[in-house]
Amino acid sequence: MAKKKTKIGDMRWEITIEQVTRTEDADTGAWDETWATYRTTRAKREYVAAGSGEDIEDDLQLLGVQKRFYTIRKLDSSINVSDFRVNDGGVMMDILEVQQFDFGERYIKLICVERNNDNS
């Protein structure tokens, strides 16, 4: 059976990809994070349940955590897991992995989990 190709029409959800800026407090040495909009784009959103093919150890760590896949058109190659997150209508999602796929790598799949803290 042939794999169904991603189509632009599948990208019905608007998400914001945010980038972090880290600054060190000169007095305390503590690091502060400030998030700003990197790009707003359309995405295909898929919900993934724990136990859906990840390693068992990953499932135990992700128990009770919302996991989502976002498929977007390839923006550029600078999106990475340490400096970016997804804002999905106010729900902050940490990016676990960035995968390029489809002919010519036209799309990027962002594998994300919901942030489990109150840091914005």
Please provide a written account of the structure:
The N and C termini lie far apart (43 Å). With 120 residues, the protein is mainly beta. The chain has a single domain (15-114), classed as Bacteriophage SPP1 head-tail adaptor protein (Thrombin, subunit H). Residues 52-57 have low confidence and may be disordered. It is elongated, with a radius of gyration of 16 Å. It contains one helix and six strands, in the order E-E-H-E-E-E-E. It has a six-stranded antiparallel β-barrel. The chain has one helix at 56-62, and strands at residues 13-24, 31-48, 67-73, 84-88, 91-101, 107-114. Strand 1 and strand 2 (31-48) form a beta hairpin. The longest helix has 7 residues, at 56-62.
Q: What is the chain-wise order of helices and strands?
A: EEHEEEE
Strand content: over 45%
The second-level CATH architecture is Beta Barrel
DSSP strand tally: 6
Q: Radius of gyration from the CA trace?
A: 16 Å
Q: Give the spatial strand order of the biggest sheet.
A: 1-2-3-6-5-4
Query: What's the pLDDT, averaged over the residues?
Result: 81
Share in helix = under 10%
Q: Span from first to last CA?
A: 43 Å
CATH class: Mainly Beta
Poorly predicted sequence stretches spanning 5 or more consecutive residues: 52-57
Summing up helix and strand content along with how strands pair, one would put the structural category as mainly beta
Q: Could you describe the largest sheet, including whether it forms a barrel?
A: 6 strands, antiparallel, barrel
Count the domains: 1
